[in-house]
User: What shape does this take?
Amino acid sequence: MAKTLTQEFTKGLWKEVPPFRLVLGLCPTLGVTTTLENGVGMGLATTFVLVCANLLISALRNVIPSKVRIACFIVVIATFVIVVEQVMQAFAYPLFLKLGVFIPLIVVNCILLGRAEAFASKNGIVSSLADGLGIGIGFTLSLGVLGSLREILGTGAITIPFGASYAVMPAAFEPFGFMVSAPGAFVALGLLLALMNLAPSK
Amino acid sequence: MGDYIVLVVSCIFVNNILLAQFLGNCPFLGTSKKMETALGMAMAVIFVLGLAGAITWVIDAYVLKKFGLEYLQTIAFILVIAALVQFVEMFLKKSIPGLYAGLGIFLPLITTNCAVFGVCVLNVQNELGFMESLVTSVAYAAGFGLALVLFAGLRERILLARVPRALQDTSIGLVTAGLIALSFMGFKGLV
Assistant: This one.
């Protein structure tokens, strides 16, 4: 029954990768992934909140009364979201503006409450840390993949996060504007999910 | 009066909360498998979002702004919404059991519905007045309900269709949602 730390960590990368397998946290997944940079920025912000909240909740798990646990989890999560909000406003203002309302919305991201309830409130600090990191990185990677797919097809170029932009498509490529619009988000995610289902599930 | 009509049309159709702003997508996919649950969720959201929009506006204007505590907005709003949902649940259970039985399990789910929280934050960010906030909240919620019911109807039909194995369930649901969003884009020039 006892799983190793590596297993706790790697399950978030493929077996339980949040937006695809668990179908949680769809709003940021659909809303911010118009570019790779937005996707990765959102993913990192969520990972930070997830790891910190997992740690604190796991440390406090014997103190929190079970009747009001959900309220306690939300307060812990909201505190770290405010930290991220303030830090991003100070050091990554352009990204903060682009992500807009989705930064405060991390607080209602079901992944966070889901991990707190299903994992951190029942497990020790170290395995909660591994769980948070794994799920967070899996989430960041998913957003990165979806973001780069939409950016390449929608604009024909790709921007390395916090770096330069490169044209990857030949000059004759007509940007597929549908992909960066709202309906494109749904269709792109649906098709990616179908691709993952095609992969053999051993 | 004319301004409010424009506001309502833009919130329901042009800037539809689910299909154009991507808020509240978890219940959108989670509760849309049956028409009955979709209707229940839609009613619960309209009810709670109307109340939450008004209350968070008051909290923001008379508590947070007054004492210079705007940075606590996130934590204050989520607590207000969670408390409100609990309160509404208790109130309905006691005094309107019929409505409670109808909304039942959907009420607690609303706490983590990002549409509710998102609209409250957007109202404050766009510096709307009290009446505008109230109208916007209810109109966004109505848009949520409309999209949810439309989507549930389509999903019930999809059950009868032969869908490739890899695309089944959530996957085809997302593609369908994309097509609904595409048709809603047709409202763009309306306002």
User: Anything to note?
Assistant: DSSP finds nine helices and no strands in chain B. Residues 2-190 of chain B form one domain.
